[in-house]
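Hey, I'm writing a tutorial for new members on how sequence and structure tokens pair up, and I'd like a real worked example in the thread rather than a made-up one. If someone can provide the structure for the chain below, I'll link this post from the tutorial.
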Amino acid sequence: MGILACIGVISPFPFYYFLWNQPQTWVNLCGKDRDPSKTMAMVSHVFKLIQFVSLYSVSTLSWPPPLYFWPLILFGQFLNFRVYQLLGEAGTYYGVRFGKNIPWVTEFPFGTVKDPQYVGSIMSLVACVAWVPFLYIFLWVLGYLFMIHVESKEDPASRAKPLS
């Protein structure tokens, strides 16, 4: 199950890389009737399920969790919730890349925590290290670090033009 779990954990990152670098292709694939951010969100949720099933397949669960679990998971999930609350679905799922006008947000955690959604996700993963072998946490975190790097180089000229 190890190699399949590794593949499952890293499975969404080629998709995210493609969407970041080829937003017009995605907008065209979605067509006029489908919102590209909403469609990306739906596909991303399927990938997230694959990732969770992959982690679960190699996990050894026990109770109670280590003391470090609670602050990491609670603050990590708070960051994720807050980012989604402030940006909405379109802002979270590459709306800017798909040609949408997403307002700039400066409220916490933006302006305080660099890449708050990724930081929150990494914190949540690290919280689970007592149950999940390090390799799988490491691969998932590497995927996030890779996407932080990819998304740090955004050329506004490469944004998609919305279909009319």
